[in-house]
Design a protein that fits this description.
Strand 2 (59-75) and strand 3 (80-100) form a beta hairpin. The strands form two sheets. Strands 2-3-5-6 form a four-stranded antiparallel β-sheet. It is of the alpha+beta class. It has two domains: 13-55 and 101-270 and 316-430, Outer membrane efflux proteins (OEP), CATH 1.20.1600.10; 60-99 and 275-314, no CATH class. The two termini are 58 Å apart. Mean pLDDT is 85; it is low at 1-14. It has helices spanning 2-12, 21-31, 33-54, 102-169, 175-210, 237-244, 246-266, 297-303, 322-388, 394-430; strands at 17-19, 59-75, 80-100, 217-219, 272-286, 306-314. Helix 3 packs antiparallel against helix 4 (102-169), helix 4 runs antiparallel to helix 5 (175-210) and helix 4 (102-169) packs antiparallel against helix 10 (394-430).
Length: 432
């Protein structure tokens, strides 16, 4: 029975999975709703291309009508009005073909441009999701690291309290040392509660960025080498990233689409050439009379055949200024799209330069901390020896010890900042 209960709870609470940053990015770019919506739009625009090409083909339809007429009506056989009850069956087939309509040809090009734009927007959605995941991932890592530092501090202070109490009992230390340590322990415990809440909230934000609804994941850092700043020193760094960014490529494609829409609007000034072919026949039967008095179905079907062939040229002369209005509106849309381009260039330039500045600052800070880390380690070790020998009071050692643990966290956090900016750069460099 106990085994059954154990298996039940194992199934109810599956083992926690461990994901690194790359696994998070892979999942988000495949499952996030923003990416799925953008994928659907690409497929939709692909179908619209097929629809646009279909406009160059003829349309064919066939129809059958079965009608009963009671009272005064036209006798379809004699073409005279009589008091009759009749059955009338009509069979038709028709084909229409737009031989020349410049708008239909331009629509194919526009649909192709729209698909290209939607493909850029798909990549843009993926990048947006990636950038958010990266920021949330490192926010969680920093929150987790800070909580671990506090837990180490608290655990060390609890041990320190026990040792100090023993030393007080044998008279090696004053009672005030215990009070000092306990007072600082209370302060650290308050910080631990706040840090735990911050870590938990940052994990919730990361799960939300992944569009992952179950808290069954643990996120860990993979071993990575820090990037060189050489690529950031390239004078064309911002320009290169700007031109390959999908947001920039998307707005360029949108401008081309707006220009194509202007061409389509101008097509309203051009004539169109259309052709059509129709075929029809009918069968008419007077109800209430024997079949011998009605012409047979097969005979009527053959005798009543009719065919029509039409070839028409339509030349627009005056259309209530609608074409002119459409052309002028399309021109304004092009101007507006160019302003969108300027806004996107400004935003991207700011974002790229911000990542560059943050990377360089984070790397400089990390180099300084890394260089001074060994000195801080040696300083802590000497202070620890002095404390054990009774040459340093508990409060002073507490300050030194906390400074050493803070230095550990600062180094980890600074390294995370460098890696974070590097990962953000990778997203911007990925292009399309």
């Amino acid at each position: 029975m106990k085994n059954m209960i154990f298996l039940f709870f194992v199934g109810l609470y599956p083992a926690q999975q461990t994901w690194n940053l790359q696994q998070c990015l892979d999942y988000a770019t495949a499952h996030h709703p923003l990416v799925k919506q953008a994928t659907v739009n690409v497929a939709k625009n692909d179908k619209l291309i097929t629809g646009s090409k279909g406009m160059l083909l003829p349309s064919v339809e066939a129809g059958v009508r079965h009608t009963y007429s009671f009272g005064s009506s036209i006798n379809q056989s004699s073409n005279q009005r009589e008091a009759l009850n009749t059955q009338y069956d009509q069979f038709t087939a028709q084909a229409d073909w737009s031989l020349f309509n410049w708008k239909n040809i331009l629509d194919i090009s526009l649909s192709t441009l729209n698909k290209e734009t939607s493909a850029y927007r798909l990549k843009l959605a993926q990048n947006k999701v990636k950038l958010n995941v990266i920021q949330m991932f490192f926010a969680y890592q920093n929150g987790k690291s800070w909580l671990e530092v506090l837990e180490t501090q608290i655990s060390g202070m609890q041990d320190q309290i026990k040792r100090t109490e023993k030393e007080v009992e044998i008279g090696n230390r004053p009672k005030s040392d215990v009070y000092d340590i306990k007072a600082n322990l209370g302060t650290l415990q308050e910080q631990w509660v706040s840090a735990k809440n911050q870590r938990d909230q940052s994990k919730i934000n990361l799960l939300n960025a992944l569009a992952f609804t179950q808290d069954s994941l643990e996120f860990v850092m993979a071993e990575e080498n820090l990037s060189s700043e050489a690529e950031f020193r390239d004078p064309d760094f911002t320009k290169k990233l700007l031109e390959k960014n999908p947001a920039y490529q998307s707005v360029i494609a949108e401008i081309k689409a707006q220009e194509k829409k202007e061409d389509i609007a101008r097509a309203g000034y051009l004539p169109t050439l259309n052709a059509s072919y129709s075929w029809s026949t009918f069968y008419n039967k007077v109800l209430g009379k024997d079949d011998n008095s009605n012409i047979r179905f097969s005979d009527q079907f053959s005798q009543n055949k009719n065919q029509t062939v039409l070839l028409g040229l339509t030349i627009p002369i005056f259309n209530k200024l609608q074409v002119k209005t459409n052309v002028e509106t399309a021109k304004l849309d092009i101007i507006n799209s160019n302003y969108d381009k300027e806004l996107i260039i400004n935003d991207l330039t700011q974002n790229i330069n911000s990542i560059k500045a943050q990377f360089l600052n984070a790397q400089e800070k990390y180099n300084l901390l890394d260089t001074n880390f060994e000195n801080q380690k040696l300083s802590f070790q000497k202070s620890e020896e002095k404390y054990k020998e009774g040459l340093m009071d508990a409060y002073t050692f507490f300050v030194v010890r906390n400074g050493w643990l803070q230095a550990n966290y600062n180094l980890i956090s600074s390294k995370n900042d460098v890696i974070q900016q590097t990962e953000l750069l990778k997203v911007l460099e990925s292009g399309f």
